[in-house]
Fold each of these.
Amino acid sequence: MVVEEGNTRPQRPVYGKVVQRIIEEEMKKSYIDYAMSVIVGRALPDARDGLKPVHRRVLYTMFLTGLTHNKPFRKSANVVGNCMARFHPHGDAAIYDTLVRLAQPFSMRYPLVDGQGNFGSIDGDTAAAMRYTEARLSKLSEELLADINRETVDFVPNFDNSIKEPVVLPSRLPNLLVNGSSGIAVGMATNIPPHNICEVVEAVVMQIDNPDVGVEDLMEALPGPDFPTGGIICGRRSILSLYRLGHGIIKIRAKAEVEEAKHRIIISEIPFQVNKAQMIEEIARCVHNKSIVGISDLRDESDREGMRIVMELKRDANPEVVLNQLFKHSKMEYSFGAIATALVGGTPRTLPLKEMIACFISHRRDVVRRRTAYDLKVAKERAHILEGLIIALRNIDEVIKTIRASDDVESAKNALMTGFSISELQAKAILDMRLQRLASLEQEKIRAEHKELLITIGELESILTSEQKILNIIKKELLEIKSVYGDARRTEISDVEVDEIDVEDLIEEEDMVVTISHRGYIKRLSVDTYQQQRRGGKGITAANTHEEDFIEHLFIAHTHSYLLLFTDKGNIYWLKVYQVPEASRYSAGRPIVNLIRIGSDEKITAFIPVREFADNMSLVMATRRGLIKKTRLKAYSHPRKGGIKAIVLNDSDSLINVELTDNSREIIIATGLGRAIRFHEGDVRHCGRVARGVRGIRLKPGDEVVGMVAADSDKTLLTITENGFGKRTAIEEYRLTARGGKGVRNIKIGERNGNVVSVKAVSDVDEVMVATKSGMLIRVPASGISVISRNTKGVRIMRLNQGDVVVASARYVKE
């Protein structure tokens, strides 16, 4: 131990050679070495046989131990142990997991291992321990190993240099396409979908015949992936991307059938790599939290005959809407991110379809050539031996005499070689020949075999000199595989592209009652929730409001409509009606501030349901201080989460109402003290989105605007007061004037009626909904409300409880 002077801390001795290195360079080199080891030796398949090293080693181990498809099963532990001892010293778990997957018919389109016992299930059940299961090679996997003993591929030493293993398998079938592959390396990944063997063979043969064939032409033979679990591929665009570029996102949907008679949905196939049990649990959770509505019962009736998931539907459920919800919120639709990364010459590459096929053809060309060369060498060696035997038979007496005259075997061999001009191999063959071969028939067999060998040698030599003959052999072997192993396609390919399910496809089209309370709670309910009542009834509860809260706004909107939400500060926000939470009649709803980014000092005052932003439509806005503004609807067609300015207001003013018009309407503005003015909207010019507007009505002191409607001559103006009284008046009774006047009397106000709270333009076929501060709601036909003159008090529309007042009304138009 060395101790430096002035340093009492002992220094650790140094053994061997120490190399000074910069740590960044060492880390970089070490990580690159690690990354390449993972890429080449573990995670990515070879483009030639479509196998990773562990797959190749498992199959070759079974081949060496004689576990072919026509031999008895043997314990999986035997395969795992032999593989680990000979080729793959990385633990038994990785080897057995590989063996299990190769045997699973729901993981492999064409299983390469024939398993016996519990090898897991599509429900995610794990396989039994290796000591319980048994395995052997499937018949198809033997096509991967065919001719491996005929010098068709290179062999390299194993990890301890005790035995050699193949670098690649001869692989008569294009396994990379047929069974696909998946793996995650360092900085790259592969996820190649499986295909139908018949279609793959046709595509390979097509490219052999025409190397310049286009991808579109190849897709006529190979239209797309064929997954072991079936399902439906949505659209061909992503398949074309995969085949052209080597990557694409393929959307797979479960195969569902709607049984109209029994009002239920039957699922018979699910997307590839989806766990069935987890999918059913996920659907059940979505049904529970109401992400999916319309399902009353869900059960799995799958058995040995096949998959069958039954979904009983509620009586009023729309099967198409339920299916769209299932595709959106569950793994009944699954995005398969395909990327064809494989090793080509030891280098990872992303391969389009043509290059994958070209790699296989090149590999098979090399295998056939090496196999032919091996067969030629064997045939020539045998022909050489037979030529020596024929010479011996032709001179049999002299041969026997020479052998008898020799002292030993070595001298006899030398004498034969010298006396008959033959090689050492031929001489040894003559010496090893049995006397029975001297019979005339045996002699004839030798001469016939020699003739056949000469013909075979000629054929083999012609194959080696002809590229076309090699390609013909490849085609012939592929077509034989197709005839033996070919089966029908399982996965259907739909021409309908599904980039992303439109949320509106998940929502059934219907009219909804939307209520908003004074404190900003919003909800929607189906119009059918409320039964029609006669005028004068007490109504039913529309919402249980919080203390000091009350229903302030109520209107009818379609589920697919936009809600343009206008605040008293003159801002506009966007919200789809289906985004409003649906709740029961007794629910208060949800705070609207949770749905839009509204300012803390803002209050929603107007709502316009809009199906589309048409060029010929305009928004007419009225303020509490009597201003009016008209702006084209198109100016508000670009929704922003934070909202935008709809109108500029003075500090003392606020936005009171907004109407959607077609630029040919008449406008009526009504005040709380019972005044109203009617003028043509042409009197109001179009202005910009952030303009202030012009005067609409001149107000008396203490008065303010309570409503604005777009009036039609075939309708009447319904005026409702806070004490539940109201009337309808013909539009013609309000004389047409210029904007900006004081208007005329609309209704008599006083202690009986109270002030005006709402005005609506209605016709006889309309129905009216009226809401009170306490949360009561009534739905009555407009025809049940009398049509009387302007200067009257009206009739009772709704009987109120003590202290209750009317706060809002809405018009519902029947289709």
Amino acid sequence: MRPNPDRRFPGARLPQRQAARARGRLALIWVLAAMLGACASPPKPPETAATLKSLQDRPLVLPADQGVTTNDQTALDAYRAYLKKAPGDAQRPEAMRRLGDLEMQSADTRASGGGPTAGAAVDEQKLDAKNYGVAVNLYQELLRAYPNAPDNDRVLYQLAHAYEQGGALESALGVLDRLVREYPKSSYFNEAQFRRGELMFTMRNYAGAERAYASIAHSPTHTPYFERSLYMHGWSVYKQGRLEDALASFFGVLDLKLIARDETASLDAVAGLSRADRELVQDTLRVTSLCLESLQGADSIPPYMTSALRRDYEFRIYENLGEMYLTQERIKDAADTFLAFVRRFPLHAQAPVLQSRVIGIYQKAGFDSLVLDAKREYVERYGAKSEFARANQDAWEREARPQVKAYLTELAHRDHAIAQKTHRTEDRQAAVRWYRELIDSFPQDPEAASANFLLAELLFEDGRYAQAGTEYEKAAYQYLPHEKSADAGYAALLAYAQQEKQAAPEQRPAVERTAIESALRFGSAFSKDPRVGPVLTNAAEKLYALHEVQKASDVAQIVLKLQPPATPEQQRVAWTVVGHSAFESGDFAAAEQAYTEVLARTAGNDPGRDALAERLAAAVYKQGEQARAAGRLREAVDDFDRVATVAPQSAVRATAQYDAASALIALKDWAGAGRTLEDFRQRYPKHPLEGEVDSKLAVVYSESGQWALAAGEFDRLAARQTDPNLARGALWQAAELYEKAKARPSAVSAYERYLQRYPEPFETAIEARSRLVRLAKEDGNAGLALARTRELMVAEQQGGAARTEHTRLLGAHAALTLAEPVDAEYRKVALVEPLKKQLKLKKAMMEDALKAYAVATDYGVADVTTEATYRSAELYRDFGKALLTSQRPGGLSKDEREQYDVLLEEQAFPFEEKATGLHEANAHHSAEGIYDKWVKGSFDALAKLRPVRYGKTEQGEEAIDVVR
């Protein structure tokens, strides 16, 4: 493989036997460097000003213009005549050079077909030598006659040109060697070196060509020949087998042409490149791929990506190498090359393009398993919620989105078909995964509803009924109506029914509520469906069982109004739900009416009739309760008395007298209430409410301000109460009343007993611990208060699912309290000699304090989080300051002291940065509407740490704008 430089660079040479045919190409480089002026003299490059104009001050006097039209031959004859007549004139060297230039021009004209030899059937190489021989002789004679002339570098330049045009390449090279050797500061130096490189490359002297090109390519000053020399330098090194060195030059060319180009454009249309530059880039990429292939392929690319700018075109290196492998039918190498880039730069805009190429390669090669794996990897890497999609939204829409959808659909259908054959859970789960991702990624797609229904079917078949129900509902209601909408809605109910059967008792209510909501949704969306009647009746019963009485009544009313009508049994159930719901909602008149309707549809020997009659009696009693609730207490007492009249055998009769006493308590008739309660205790010593008498008496004492007596009643009640909930409540009341009576020892005892007996409910237990902490503080026992604070925090952290916002609040404040002594101990440690020991101790204590504050922060309580974050930041800040102000070792010189101080600043800087980061994080809470004194403190600290950004912030409102 060899470059074709003459197609790009006019100075490139072909072998000597082709020199004559290359004249047209070679002439261009000479024309660029030696364009003939008005007097047919080739002008110097811009570095010099040696033109005919420079001869104006010389004594040569030419005859006045007679208006005669001249041509090249006339000029030649004039110069020849002058040289014959003035052999010793001072202008003779200039005239000889100009004559030589005119001979060169004449030879160029003849060589291009404009002279008398055009079309002659003679040997081209001999003709070239003949055409340029006169010029060669003139230049040689000039150099011999005037070896020290100041413009001899130009003469050598023209002589080399003449030799090369005449086909004497070795002679041309020799002259150029002399030019660069004798005139290193010549304005022709760079072009001469470039032409030397071209000649030596043509002669296969690659080492010499390398040196010639290197003198330009490695020059600190770029010249017009720089890019060409860099490219040909790479080829010269490549020809010598030094591939790594060649790659350095080729990447240099690519740096010049590809950096900051549009990475989405193909090489045939890279923005801003001319056609010649595109061809240069294509050839450079081609030879770069050849080098990489001979090394370690794609593994050899990363070491050359030595700058961030070079990564602009790095993907083209992988792409071009992969494409070369494909032309060589090296399928695996091509795929591995594309994948190497994808895995190295997964977020690059071209990564999905190369990944798609891999899939195409595998498909074309018939590698089905590899195709499948590649498609899985594609959707995982470039899914709609992938990091790539977030980082490259435009590229994702353009390149990845269509492929992701197609591959997800294909993978889902494939695994679904497999699952239907094998009935294995793992196969179903595989299909479920793809369906979920397809739906989540393309929720508005017309095929999403069908995919959602198939997903639900799979989940149901796999026994995952909760998930199946959710997906059935989505399929039924989330999309525009479709042929499976109603079936999906009903299937959701079947899924929830299965879930109820499997649910643990404590989980069943939640499952039932979900099923009920789904049933109501089904009834609303598909009201004409024949399955609506039994679905809504069942929903009404379940709602009532879950104490959703108003909702249950509303659903039952819908059942009663269905058209066509519901069955009689469904109506009886609906009226029962309406009655119970009205009774429980306090509409006892409506309850009485409903129970009447139920009894009308209930057989006389039905075992449930007595219960219904009892409910009617209870409705009368409840009217008395309503009167009492309305503040008509005397009327309430009358209603309670009426219960004995209308239902003397009713179980609520004793309750009525008890409620009368309660009404008297409400009337604050403490004496009357006390007498009534004592009478109840005598009349109904075995009645279940007898146990409530003590509590009522406790209330009487409480309301009359006798706290200690009331606490004693509650304490006794707790001791003899068999109901753990009531006993717990009584003991709690006793503790609170002891505390209210300022009987702290009794209150402490009551709270301690409460914790021992009733660790649940968890929130109340934590509250008890909090009160014990407060009581210890009020007693001035700081040690006990700290110990109980620690117990509170540990207990709260072990609360698991029982933890609440209130317990977290108490736990967070406890954690913050426990962090304070750790912080205080840290600040006691001074950084003095022995510094190493003290530094280790102080850092360890700082870590302990940070951990303690982290515990408080983990609770997520706003005011605790802001304070803990502020204090953590201040710990870092204090540690950095402590380093800077630490005791310096003795015996340091001034320089050593300065170095020591610099080292301390370097060690302190990370701690200041951590402090800044934490303060900034704390300041960001202001954007969430949190602006307490700790957030303000962070802003104040930032004003000192980062005065440029935060120093001008004065108001809280402005602070919010800053962090945004």
